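Lab manual, section 2.4: Encoding a predicted structure.

Procedure: take the sequence of the chain (389 residues), apply the prediction step described in section 2.3, and record the output as structure tokens. A sample record is shown.
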Amino acid sequence: MIKSSLAAAAVSSASPGFAYINKYVGSSAPIRIGVIGTGDRGGGLISVMRDIEGIEVAACCDVIPFRLANGMKRAGDSAKAYTDYRKLLEDKSIDAVLVATPFSTHAQIELDALAAGKHVYGEKTMAKGYDAVLDVVDAAQGNLVFQTGHQYHSSRLYTHVVDLIKDGKIGEITAFECQWNRSGNWRRPVPEPELERKINWRMYREYSGGLTAELCSHQIDFTNWVLGETPSQVFGTGGIDYWKDGRETFDNVHHLFSYPSGVEATFTCLTTNAKDDYQIKVMGDKGTIILDYVNGWFYPEGNYSKKRAEVDGVAGATIPWEAGKGIPFEFSHADPSKQALMDFRDAIKNNSKPISDLKTGANTAICVQMAIDSMLTNGVVKWNPEHSI
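Recorded output:
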């Protein structure tokens, strides 16, 4: 694969003959992580990481002073503060970085981090645009861990449900219906007018993929994961139909993905109505599974009796049935974001591939770009074989 100038510039900055040596084999030393981007997401993950054994938040970086100050307050007195992420990458005591900056900056920071020999946790969506995605894939080969921040891919509830689906729990999959609806303008408060585009970058196409990249991407990632496929074609529509406030990204999006296996999947995101909030519905010819952030329910097809002769191998067991919710999955698991960061730690320590890895993140990022292109051109976008990872 031919690298673009973006990738070439980052790769050329790596030390000649660089080879990664896993110093964590047999060691109890914490992994020292630098957080690049300490806004809502990055700052929130600092608090999560401080509650995880084996991780130390060693540095914070942000270009907005009050955001950096908030990040440092969460990170603690031992962390270093940076306003230039490249200076953070020069710190040889930092083992890994968490990239939680505006979407358009992900690729360059990830490339520079890999070139500096750092493990990378790249917040979703992995990179903006087809070339940038492929550049990161090219650069991330080797022993460094690259994990994409689709935290539900690490959720033990979700991995359990994927196993059940693949074992035939709902029969042959026929459709997915996914939504992530909110009621509000999606804006962040801006203390000074000149910070508008830096703080509300999600509203501007130069920096953002809008609702598709920020929200729908999680459910696109899940659908690809369950099916083991990427879509053959995508159609999307949306508009700036309610919040007439100068934004450039749509305030509602609706996508239809068609997969090679014949399965159709829909993804909807609204900012004007929060009914049912976040939901994934996986439908098959033997039943339906519905997931929210941390819970799941199974609805069997056909006639249903609350008492059967045998349920999951237990004779005479009564099936728990929540009114309007189906049969709940009784499954204990950690918060998905915390689990994802624990998986990142373990992948570094064990020199193993994370569940939400480079390939799954890249495929989702390509799907996101297809969906954005479809909305902007009002046409069907077909999968390009040159984008296959």
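Check your result against the sample. Residues 5-149+339-356 form a domain with the Rossmann fold fold (CATH 3.40.50.720).
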